[in-house]
Automatic annotation (TrEMBL):
Signal peptide: none
Organism field: Palleronia caenipelagi
Domain Flavin reductase like: 20-167
Any Pfam family matching the protein: Flavin_Reduct
InterPro entries: Flavin_Rdtase-like_dom, Split_barrel_FMN-bd
GO molecular function annotations of the record: FMN binding; oxidoreductase activity, acting on the CH-NH group of donors, NAD or NADP as acceptor
Protein name: Flavin reductase family protein
Length: 201
């Protein structure tokens, strides 16, 4: 089949997220100017550069108490920093619980029962149970086409890795099974690897 997005697809559910999958999940922790903290997952998330290391995530939609955006973007606008926490299979339930449209004064660290740990290079908390976390300084917030669509770009200023998952000098993803987002209400975990060398390597 072929469809133009502006015309609709005629299917029971939109296939776009299923086509662009799997997608890593950035579990974004932020702190507001008033000291309140927020934790929310974003599946429009990825690494985009090596030197300096940079990540992006996109926020779509808005909450009525956040003036055209969501808590994460609003906090980052105020403070200029955020932390991207990696979601392991062991963290899927609290991650999903934190995705709700909670009021701005809801502390998802407390609500989900995950442990708050301090970041080293930014004034923000991270998820202590996360296998890895990237402390980031926001460099740009880009307004995307459409209503309430924002792309956040951050430079990584600090990297946390759980020592249990460093094996033979490598960060071993099979040890903690990272979770990815698919389409609809579907998720997946990384449970097997294969290797390929690029031509000339």
């Amino acid at each position: 089949m072929f469809y133009r997005p502006e015309d609709g697809h005629g299917l029971p559910h939109t296939p776009f997220n299923a086509i662009v999958s799997p997608r890593p999940i950035g579990w974004i922790s932020t702190r507001g100017a008033d000291g309140s903290e927020n934790l929310a997952p974003y599946s429009f998330f990825n690494a985009v550069a090596y030197t300096p290391p940079q990540v992006i995530f996109a926020s779509t939609g808005a909450k009525p108490d956040r003036d055209g955006t969501k808590d994460s973007v609003a906090n980052i606008r105020d403070t200029g920093v955020f932390c991207a926490n990696v979601v392991s299979q062991a963290l899927v339930e609290p991650m999903n619980q934190s995705s709700g449209p909670w009021p701005r004064d809801m502390d998802e660290f407390t609500m989900t029962g995950v442990t708050r740990a301090p970041c080293e290079t930014i004034a923000c908390s991270r998820v202590a149970e996360a296998p890895a976390a990237l402390e980031c300084r926001m460099t740009q917030i880009v307004t995307l086409e459409g209503e309430n669509n924002f792309l956040v770009i951050g430079t990584v200023t600090g990297v946390h890795m759980d020592d249990r998952y460093i094996k033979n000098g490598r960060f071993d993803v099979l040890s903690y099974t990272p979770v990815s987002r698919l389409g609809y209400q579907d998720y997946s975990t990384v449970t097997e690897l294969f290797q390929m060398k690029r031509p000339g390597e």
